[in-house]
Amino acid sequence: MASPLPGFTDEGLLPPGDYELTFEELRKSVLVEGPRPASPWGESWDAEWRSHLSHQAETMCNQLWSVGIEDIYLDGSFTEAKTHPNGHPRLLRVRRQAGRDRGAPAGAQSD
């Protein structure tokens, strides 16, 4: 079972664990919105760049889901407290939005 996404450790990493998020949840998380301003990383956090990376990853995942690949794990400096990561997310299991049919394009809802 996946855990809710916690804040960063003192080393600027996510604590060990499995984290399962939708892209909507990801964009509202500390990984995109950033840590508290008082944290060592909060002042120069590049939320706009992180949002862009999350949208790129979502496009890739939608393509993989459309051909039947269900389990997708994202990895990289995106999951660290780097102000401007150079890659995509780290061991986050991405799940589809609730209510979406298998293979439905992004934004489509099942009836």
Characteristics:
single chain; 111 residues; alpha+beta; three-stranded mixed sheet; 3 helices; 3 strands
Describe this structure in words.
The protein is α+β, with helices and mostly antiparallel strands and 111 residues long. It is 26% helix and 8% strand. It has a three-stranded mixed β-sheet. The two termini are 28 Å apart.
For the largest sheet, list the strands in their spatial order: 1-3-2
Would you report the number of β strands? 3
Q: Roughly what fraction of the amino acids lie in strands? A: 5-15%
Rg: 14 Å
How many angstroms separate the termini?
28 Å
What would the average pLDDT be, to the nearest integer? 75
* Spans where pLDDT lies below 50 across 5 or more residues: 99-111
Largest sheet: 3 strands, mixed
Question: What class, by secondary structure content?
Answer: alpha+beta
Morphology call = globular
The number of helical segments is: 3
Task: Provide the succession of SSEs.
Answer: EHHHEE
> What percent of residues adopt helix (DSSP H or I)?
25-40%
